[in-house]
Structures are given as C-alpha cells and as structure tokens.
Amino acid sequence: MDDVSRVQSLLRFAGKVLTARERVLMQMGDTRLGVFRQRDIYDLPGVLMDGDDGEWLIIKRLEETSPKSPDEEVAEFLENDGSNPFKVPELKPVISKVVSVDDAEELQELNRLKPEHISETFEKGELLEDSVRVSLFIEDHAEIQEKYEEWISSTWKIWSDQEKLVRKSLDLYNSLFKIHSSIHISEGVPPEVIWGFGIGIWSTQDKKIEMPIIEQEVEIEIVSEGDLLIRPRNKPMELSLKPYLELEIPNSANLQSKLVELLEKTKKQDEDISPLSFTAIKPILQTAASELDSGGKYISNDDLIAENLESDDKLKILETWAIYVRPRSATARYKDLEELAKVVDKEQRSPIALKGFVLPEPDQETNVDTFGLDPTILGNTGAANYADDPEAYNQGFSQPQNSTKKNKNAYFFPLPFNSEQAKIIDTLEGRNGSKYSSVVSVTGPPGTGKSHTIANLVAHSMACGKRVLVTARTAEAISVVREKLPTELQSLVIASTGTDRESTELLKNAVSELSDTISRSDFNKVSSERDDLEAKILECDKAIEEAENAISSIARANLEQITLHGKEFTPMDLVTALGEGEVDHSWFLDRPKNLPRESLNNELLVLKEKLPDLAPDLELRNIILPEIQDIPSAADILEAHNIELSRGEHVELDPSNFAPMAINEPDDLKRAQLLLNQADKASQDLSAFTKNQSALLRFSTGDAASLEVLVKLFDYISSMNLDPDIDNVRYGRDVSFNDLYRAVERGAAGQKPAPGLFNGKLKAAVKDVSINGNIVSEKKDWRTVLGAMNLERKSIEIIDGLEMLPIDTSWINDQTGGWVWAKKLRSMSTDLSLIAKIKKELGLISERAKYLFPQGLNLDEIRSGDTSKLIMSLQANTPSNNITHRAKLDLSNIGELSSHSFFSRIKELAKAIGHVDIETNDLVRERSSLTIELQRLHNLKDELVIVQNAFTELENSGGAKWSEMLQANPENAVDLIPENWIKSWEWAVITGSLEAVVSLGNGDQHRIKKAQAIKDRAKHMISLIQVRTMLGLKSRMTSSVQRAMQAFTQAVSRIGKGTGKSAPRYRTAAQNAAREVAVAAPVWIMPEYRIAEQIPSEIESFDLVILDEASQSDVTAIAALARGKQVLVVGDEEQVSPSNVGIPQQKINALRAEHLAHIPNADLIDENTSIFEITMRMHPESNIILREHFRSVAPIINFSAQFYNNRLIPLRVALPSERFDPPLVDVFIEEAHRKGKTNVTEAKFIVDEIAKIISEPEHDTRDIGVVSLIGSEQARLIETLLLSDERVGSLKIHERKIICGDARTMQGQERSIMFLSMVVTPDTVRSQSTREVQQRFNVAMSRARDRVYLVRSVETRNLKKSDAKLKILKHFEDPMPEGSNLINKDLFDLCDSGFEREVLGRLLDAGYRAIPQVSAGAFKIDIVVEGLNDRRLAIELDGDAYHGPERWAQDMSRQAALERAGWVFWRVFGSQWSSEKERFWDDLISTLSTMNIDPIGSNAESGSFVELRLIGKIAETKVEDKSNDLSNANLSEDKPTPVKANKILEPMNVFNEVNESEEDTIEYPAENFFQQEKIGEQEIEANCTVSLERDDGEIMNVFLVEKNADTNNGEILTSSPLGEALMGGLSGEEVEYTIGKNDMLKSVRILDVTASA
After folding, report:
1. How far apart are CA 619 and CA 617, in angstroms?
2. CA distances (Å), 297 to each of 202, 277, 285, 309, 321, in order?
3. Phi, psi dihedral angles at 94 (to 5 degrees)
4. Among 126, 1130, 1142, 1533, which is most exposed with the fewest C-beta within 10 angstroms?
5. Using one digit for the tens of pLDDT, what is the confidence trace for 290-320?
6. Helix (H) or strand (E) run with residue 436 in it
7. Cα 812 from chain centroid?
8. Do 1383 and 1507 touch, CB atoms closer than 8 A?
9. Where are the beta strands (DSSP E) in 70-206?
10. What is the Cβ-side half-sphere exposure of residue 556, based on CA atoms within 13 angstroms?
C-alpha cells in the first residue's frame, strides 16, 4: 500500500472514531446535560423572548426575596423563617424560654401555662429569684394559632406564589449559567446547545421518543449586568429525523430528503424564523406527523392544554419548542475527514505533514539538551539571531541596493523571545544548523508561554507572506493568541474562538481591513518602506551590539584580577588594599601605566646627589646660553648710553594727540615702521583711482549683499566672450535684432546668411555688417559678429545689477551695440580686479593696525581706503629720529631669555643705558662682571645636561608630576626621593588602573542606549511585520477575492442601521462575501470543531498549521494537520491525554483492523493516544521543549518540575500587588464527611474562603478556580453552593471568572488562586498512582499564579507510598527544598557578601523596602527594592566572590531571561562602589526616583512558603509539628514554629455543625424544574448494575450487593476492593483498586450504571 492509500485509511479511521462515539438520541433528556421546555419557562419572571439585537431568549438575573415576618409571638413558634416558598412553615408544638416571675404568673392566670412546665433558672451556679424557664405549648395559645393562620393566608401564601416563579427563574438561570461554564471549561470538544422546534413524542418499538423535528444550534452569552442571552448561531437550521431513521420507521429516509428540501425553501422565503412564530415551519411539522405515522397528529399551540401530552403509540408533534444540551455533533467533522480522504485520492498526493504518521517509526535518537540559557539570544532584540541568506523573501531581509553587508535570516518576532522560540523557526525553515522538518513538536510544560510563543510564530509567518491556521481542541486554549499580538497586527487575524456574534464582528473587521489595505496600498511604496525598516532594524542591531561590547569591556576591566605586591586581588578588594597604603604613598601624584626600567634608579640617585647644589642654576638646563662675544662690548654700551642721553634735545610729535600704539615685543617698532611704509603706498595707489573705481571700492565695503553683487558681476563678466576683435564689429538696426541674429547664426555655421528671393531688406542689413569697416564674408568673421550680438543679447541679464552700482550707466540704451558692451565690460573687469587687489592690501593693513592699535582707530575707514589717521598715528609713535641703538636692543633681547639672575642683570643693564643718573664707569664694571658670571654658567652646562637627561627619563617613565615636584623644589631632593620610592610607584600604577576602571562608570549610559535601541527595534519590527504582511497579501488577491470584496462592501453599505426588513438578507450576504474574502486572510484561529464549519476541505491550504494543547487532541486532529504544508504540534505528554469514554474496545479494534492494517506504526494510533504523543514518536528529531516558566511563583511550580526532570526555569517573582503570601495554604479538616465523590465539609470551607477573598478589596483583581482531584462531582457541588450563596452568586462568579472542574477541564486554564479539593477521607481513601493520575495532578497543581489552597481530609499516614496524593502533601511540607525561608531570619543573614550587606543597610536606613537574595526560579537577584503600584528594581552587585569574570556571561544571560519576565536592573561594580561610594549611591537613588520608587518602609513580605490551617477538634489543642502528618503530633510539648510551614489554628466555625445526620442538608432548590447532570446521572450504590471496561479492553457487568454475593451471577460485595472503588462513581469515570497480597493496582472504566427496580 502506498503513502496515498495509507493516508486515506488514516483519515477514514479518524472519521469512524468520531462516529463511533455518537449514539442516536431518542429523548432530549438522554444526555443528562439539561432540558428546558417552553411550558416550564415561557411565563417566568425575568424571562424575555425575542430581544432587540437578535436574541431569542433573555434571562434576567433575579434575586431571592423573603416573606414579611409575622408578629414576634408567632415567629417564636415557627420552625423556620418561611423563606422556602415550596414548604409551608409550621408551628412548633412547644418552645422553651426564660421569662420573669411576673410574666409566668400572668400566663398561669390566662391558663396558658401549667405549673409543671415551670422550672428554676441558674446563673453561674446561683439560683435566680426573679426569672424562671417555662415550656409553652402551642395548643394552649389559640390566639397565636389564629395569627399564624392569618399570616399564612394573607402574607406568606401570596409571597410564596410569586416567589416560586422567581425561584424557578433562578433555577433556570443557574442551570443555563452552569451550562455556559461547562462549555467554556470543557476538557474536549464542548457540548452544544440546541433549540428544537416541533417536539415529537412517541412510544414505539419499546422506545420512547421525545425529540424536535427542526433544530437550530444556539449559544449562551453573559453580558456585563449578569443577564444571560441566547442567540442562534451562524449555522443553518437543520431538519432531523434521526430517531425515526434509527428505528427504521417506514418512509423515514425519503421523508428526510423531502422535508430538508421543504425547509430550505421555507428559509429562503422566510428569512427570520424564530420561536415566536411556527407559521413558516408548520407545514413541515404537519407533513412529518402524517407521513411518519398514519395515526400521527400535529398539535397546535392552542390545543396543547387539552391534549394528553404523554407519549403513547400514536406520534404527536407538538407546536412547542425546547432547549436541550447534547454532546457536540461530529457529523460536520466526519464529513470533513471523508472529503479530505477524497481529495487525497483525487489528487493522488498525501499532505506532507501526514506522511510521517503512516511511515515506520524512526530510530530513536538521543536528544542532548543542556537546558541552559543561550547567551546570544536577547529577550527583545534578536540582534544575534540571524543566518546568512539574503535571497529568500520568507527567511530574511531584502538586500538594500547600496549594501555591501551580507543579509541575515531574521526572526520577525514582535514579542520578547528566547532561544527555544528561535529554534522552532530554525527547524521549520531549516537554517542556522537545524535540519528542516515539515512536522515540529513543541513540549510546553505548564506556564511556559505557549500562547506567547505561538503569537511570535504567527507574526513571523505573517511577515514571511505565509497563511497560518492556529487550532486546538477547545477555544479557550487559543483564545488569547490574537490578544497577544500587537494591536497593529490583530486586525488581519480572524479569530473564531468566542460567540458567533464576536467571531462575525472580527471577520467583518478583518475583511474591511483587507479591503482597505489592498485598495489604498501602493506596493512599490510599501516595498521601499520595507527596505527602510529593515535598514533601521540593522542599525538598531548595530547599536545594541556596540552597547553590549562597551558594557562587556567595562565588566572585564572591573572583574579581572590585578596583581599587587605579588598577590592577586579583585578590583573591589584592591580598593581596600590601596586605601591602607595611601598614607605612605599618597605623595606620589603620578599614575604611570607600568613599573619603570631599572635604569631609573640610577637617574634618581643622580638627581638626589646633584640637585641641591644645582638648585640656583637649575632653570638654565633648557636655556641656550649666549656666547661672551654676543654681549655688546663696553664701547658699544657707552655709545648707546650717550645717544640715548642726547635724545632729549629733539622736539617730537606728542603721541597723546593720536591713537596710542601698543608695543608688546621688541620687534613691534620695526613692525610699526613697516606698516607705515605699507600705508603710505596704499594711500598713493588710492589717490590714482578714478571716480568709478573709488565708488566701487566704497560699495564693496558695505553689507554682505553689496559684496555678493560685485562677486556675481565679476564672475558673470569673466564667463563672457570679450574678444578684442568685437570692438571693431558694426551692424545696423534696419531689421529686427532677432532676424539679423538668425542670419548671423547661419553665417557662423557656414551657411548663406540671407537665403531666398524675397529677403531684400535682410540682405541689405547683412551687407551693412562689418569688421574694421570691411564687409563680413568669412565664417570666422561671422562668429566674431555673433559674439558681439550675444553680448548685446545677454546684456539684458546684467542691466539690473549694473544699475544697483554707484557707477555711470548713462551709456546704456536700446541702441547700445555689442562692441560697446565689450569695451565697457572689459573696463569694468579691470576695475573689479584692481578693487579686489587693493581690498586685500587694505585688509592686511587693517589687521596689522589692529595689533598695534587695539583702540583709537576706525578699522572700517582703513578697509574703505582712508589711511590718513593710521599714517598720522604711526608717525606720532615712531618719529624718524627715535631709533634705539643696537647695543641696547641686543641687551634687552638677551635679558628676555630667562628669569635667572644672570639674565635679570642683563636686563637691568639695558635699562641703565641712557639713564641720566648712571655713570659710565658703572656700566663698564657691570659689563665685566657679567662676562665672568657667563663663563661660570658655561662651565655648569655639562652637569645641567646630566640632570636634564635624568628628568627626561623620569618623565618618560610616567613620573611627570614627580619631576615637576623635584624641579620646583630641587633643594629638597633628598627628601623628595625616598628609599622605598619603587613601592610608591607600584602603588600608583595600581591606583591609576583602578581609577581608570572607576572612570568607566557602571555602564548605565550604554544600557540606556541599548534599551532605547531595543525599544526602537521592537517598534520597527512591528511596522516591518505589518508591511511585509501587506506584500504577502498581494499574491492572494485573486479576481474572485476582489469580487467578493466588492460584494461585501455593497452589502455592508445596504445594511445601514440594520433595522430594515431586508437587513437580515444583506447581513447574510455580507457574511457570505466576508467568508470568500477571508481566504486571503493570513491568520485563522479557531477550535478544531469549527474548522469543518468554516474552512473548505482542502489539503495543504495553509502554509503552517499550529495545533495547541495537542496532548488533549486525539487522532481526529489530523483533519486540521492535513491542511498544512507544515505543522507545529504543541503539547505536553505530562498533562492530561484525551479520554474517549463509551467506545467499546471491540469496535475500536475492528476499525483498526479495517483501516490501519497496512500502516507500519498502527500500534501507536488509537482513540486514547494524543496526537502529540504520536507526533513525538514519529518525529523525535524535531522536538523542542520550552523551559522558561512565567506563570506561577516558584513554591507552586516546583511541584511540576519533578515531571520534567527539574528542567523548568521559573522566572516569575510576584509583584507586590500580585503577591498573596504565603503562596501555599494547606488546610486539614478533621472528621470531614464524604458521600460518593463529594466531600461537603471541604466544599463548605472552599465556599466560605472564596466568599471571604472576594469580600476583601485587596483581592479585587484576583480570579479563582476550584479543582476536584477525584471526579467532577465535588466541583459541581462547589459550583452549586457558590451560585446559591448570597455572598457570591452568578455575578461574582462571572466577574471573578470563578471556574470549577476537574483536572481535565482545567487544562489550558490559569487563575490567580486555585483551590484543590482532595475529597477523600481516611475511611474512603484509595491509592492513585497511574500515569493518568500523575498527569491530572500535574495539571491541577500548575494552574495557580499566586496561591494554591490544598483542602484535604487525610494525612500522610493515611496514604500509601505509591499514592500520587502523597506527593502533593510532601510538596506542601517542603516546597522549596533548596530555598531559604525568611521567618525568624535577619535580612542581613541572607546576604552573600559584605558588599550586599553594606548596600542593603544603606537602603534600609533610607527607608526603602529592600529584600536580599530574591529567588527567581533557579536564579537569585542580589537585592530587590519595591515601591508602590508594583514598581520594583533589581540591584546586582558585581565584582565580589559571587560575581567574578567567569560569571559575567552567565549573569548577562540570566538578566536577559529576567528582563523578558519584566524586570528592570541596576548594576554597580564593587570597585566602583568602594572607590566612589557617594557617586554611585546618588546614581542608585536617582534611578529609584526616576522609576517613582519611594521609601515606603520595611518589607511587608511574610517570608514563609506554606501556611498550615488545622480545622476541627485538633484546633482545640496547640500543635506544632514539622510535618503535615498529624499522627506524629506531640500534644504535650511546646515546639518552635517550623521553618517550612506557618501553622494557623482556627476554630471549627461552621464545620463544628457538620455530623452524620447533617451531611445531606446542603440546600438545593426545593423543587427541581430542569433536568441537569447533577440530578439525572445515576451514582453507583448498592443494587446497581455496572458495565465496566477492563485494562485489556474486555467488557464486564457486575451487580453490587451489600451481603451474600453470588459471584457466579456477577454479584460483588460493596465492601470488596472493587466494590469500594466503584461506590459513588459515575459513568465515564476511571477507578482504581488493588488486589492480592502485593496490592497489585488495577483500573477499570465505568461505561454505564443502571439502578435496580
């Protein structure tokens, strides 16, 4: 058999499994899920028919009322308060009360009290003389009886008649409410609610029929006010004769076809068939009655009261309706599987995703998984997660045109992601080293973000132009996927997970978005936008990488060890070590990078020896000394002296009358003289300027605009042809300029200028054209003429510019020829060149004048050409006879070389020259003395060179500041060069390194840049996914889709307000068109059972099918998988598997033999093996496990970790508002009572605790769940109590999303608080250890986010070691075996280091709520600071023993994981904290302030993980015990509070009232109006016949008796192991029992229960 045939067989097997579950209903009540008949509910208060918005039925949520109380004396005798309208309150025959002696005497006088009914009263043992106790008999009080009768007839009865209807309405409401709940927490395919029309009743062939002829599926909706609405689903009304077909009633098959055709015709004619009118369908019902039974009757509504409505041997079809609940019909799914099989046969190809299911099982490969974190995957960047492949559209970014960088495979994830999510894409696409697989399985343990993961995968597929189907067995499992996506992407996702109304609205919105997107999109523009976004993302990736590299560099510098004095230190410890040496070494101010060479010691010895002697002359070491001959001779000095003295005889100009000149340097006088010469020359040049030239110069010194005009004019003229030959051109004006110009052009081109016979005037004008008076004939001459005419032509462009200039333009007119323009412009060009040259000279003169004359001169005048004031000022300050003698100048220059005393003396000698008080002999002597001193200094030069070389060596080694210190204080060199200088040098090297490290900061600026880049990247990524999705839509816009779009738009516009008569038709047309358009939608989300309703039966119609919660799906899920080119199967083999109750094993075996005989792995495929398990077996190589857990706090989820080899990584730490400490509450109730599978004592506790929680404002946001660990009966009991409890009720249940169920129904759910009811009591406990039980307990214990209540009535001593319940109790004893408990533990004791204790202490002293060593799964956060409104900051202190360099990569991976969980981090390195404590403390406080985390006082966290509450007799004695096994309690000792559990002893309160006689006193409604499962299902008890399925598939029947069992006839005792296990059971449940000495465990499934008559 080939693959195609095998796949066909597999599809047909799945279809037959579906139909094998179904049985034809004969009566609506056979389902035991609920029946609601028109006659019972039609006139009830609060029940409305046919609402304004398409509702068929509205049930208001009413409140119970109580009757008005009777007189007090009547009330005393009443047995109850009369609040039950179905039970008349009766009078007690006698009451006992205490009255005064006077009242007793009065009663005796009235003959209402007999002496023997009087007794004494006592108080605290003493007789009370003024009161007595009396017994009053009602027979002695006739007047009370009369009042009672009056109250009953006039008050209570009237109230009762009305209240009975209210209670019936409430019962209806509660019943439908429970049905709504059961639909939404169903373990598998949810039941369906059917509105039946025309109820047929008939007793025939030993069967009773009570079923509708016409059926419409409806749905129940709860609105915000708590009202229930019932609306028809968007499915066609159907006609069903199934009971009659099953009984093979003659003509039923033909009649079925006939009536179906008639119904279709009726629906077309009457668009709005509703329960209010049977007119349209009456002919159909009448036909059915008459043709199914010759004696059949159709009974109209008017005749219903008169007719006998009991079924008999005549068929009656009643004109009435009923609502009933049944298991969802598998017909549509069966047909879907059959159609898929036909498609496979027709196309002769198998869906690639199904091939693996029909091939031999592959060899198992060991999948090595370290379960560590991938440090290259960042929570919300994905920057490092690409592989090269620039070509593939659906795998990577398109290649930018100018990019030389290779492109990378991208993960188009809009949400934070981890390595597992990246691995899924790699496997689906066969990249980054992963092998391509068309089938990928993902193991998703509880709370590991499966919906989050699927949302990312959906977005990635959208961005790759793919079409995706997301499905699961139930709608609840996938209902949040759409909401997980960014809002920008949600509009293109069609989710059919809610009511039809909601789904239709989403469909319309999606189609509208599709239509708008396609109509308004310019796909070229969109492609460009895609390229831009991809480039921006790559820029963000680069910024992220740069920030990470910078942070890593800082980390390496702070964490790598440093050697000091031969020892290894961390930078943090080094701060302390350096601090200790600061006193000895702080004199050393330099921070050299390395230790010096050994030669430096010799140089320092030189300095130490020579510096004190050379101190006075040390500054000369860098001065080039003048030679002796450089000093002016004595004769020159005397000559200069005499000249300076004679200078006083001359009359000089007074400089004070002119601008003062600043002489800053000796050469300034020379500069002044040079400037004077330049100014004189410029003045002479300017005097030769023409009037026009002078005017242009002044114009050029105006504003910037004026200068710009001249520059543009010069450039324009320079670009013109100003050939001198043009000056000799002449032409006339006898013809138009343009005609002559064209003639000249022809001549310049070598053509005849004036061709033709009739151009006489032009020819004459051409002859007048001349050059130097000669007629023009040559081509080159014509070109010269053309140049002249071009000048005239272009002159128009510059006339306006010329007129702006201060020059003569009178020569310009209409007759100005080109030769005139050539001369004028050439002249103007010369003028402009001259002006540019003089402006440059004047600019230099003004700059030099500015240096010599900082004030007093107008530089603008100089730049405009007026140099007169400058020349006068220079002459006044530098008269021609004021020339200093060379000897004096030379001495002055030498004196400026140094401040040394020798040079100071030289300077003084220069000043003495020309001084009238100085004698010539003094000058000569000083000159001689200076010569001797100069010779001495020359002799010191070699010593100074040696010292300078030593200084240079010291500075080059890194001791520049030490060198400066020695140079500044050479006389103290001995003290400044200590013997241990090398240790100071080493100290300085290390200190410098540490200061450099500290100066790097803690990386906050890089983290901010990284965070911003990540934020920008996420924004760009969402936009990129959006535009790429739009591009993908283009290929799916077929002509049929576009036509459907137009039809949809037209239909919507016609609907208008939706109130017109044709509105239903248009609404239907819009929906039909929308469905046609929807094939282009990129994403569909719906449960499995809706696929057959809404999606055509086509194989591989989706690029990817994602099946979530696949461990709940059985083989029938292949209908969804067949639609995918690739499939992703998400599940968990450690959670609940599918359960198909009621299919006989023989039937399954027959189907397997028929369809699976040729499939190699047929033994893997059956009705109870999940599709996830099958996928895991057939595709082990492509399995990926999600490990990061985000739902529950660690003490809760640690229970489930055991099922996954402790590979889960819990990352959630509850926010302050979420925290409900302790997270585990262990409630033990002594002497609880169990009946069947209910434990009323545990139920009452749970109801009271829920009522308490919802009454407390601090828990307003918490949702709640209740799980029964044995069966669903306990959950139904608790739900009933919650509904009837006035503290809770249906509204609170709806608001708080309170759900009750067993583990199967809870899979896929989560709540803030979960209650687990263990149900069993010591006398009824049975061991549970099967894999299925383990799975159920795993599910039950992993639903809570914040708190789990374990409510139990057994202790560990009551349980066997193999019992899975024992694991739960043991977990509550010690939920954190590797963790610590904060009770009685100082916060500082929890710190790992002194560094942490110091920072924690400062935070606590500042008033912050700081918690050390906070566990986040396997991780620890050093300190967490909490503020109001759930603000918190994680503080990591790096650099101590716990955060060395080898831990950095791990710390960063841990931080990335925790940031995905919402944490914000602040880090500081120990070296930085120790060096600049206040700086980094201020930075920490600033960060807290920025995050609005204020000091709110000490920690409010209790620190404990478990609270143990003991309810019952044991509460009367103080018990302290380290285990929860109360059999070990030592009641005589006072033991300390245990470390792992906080036990709270409570009084019994309501539970003290529970005893054997009261355990059945739970108040259900007094009458039961509507058939429901809790009432209609038969519970196993004595004298019941039970049909059982054994482990081997064999069926057996047993009859339970209390004694004298006849085993030969299948009787067993109720006290036998199997009998005890069965007692209280219900059909569909699996029970376990033990047999033999070794307690061998067995299990059986209950198929059916029948009570004995």
Report:
1. 6
2. 11, 19, 10, 12, 16
3. -155, 145
4. 126
5. 999 999 999 998 888 766 678 899 999 999 9
6. none
7. 78
8. no
9. 94-100, 118-123, 126-137, 192-204
10. 5
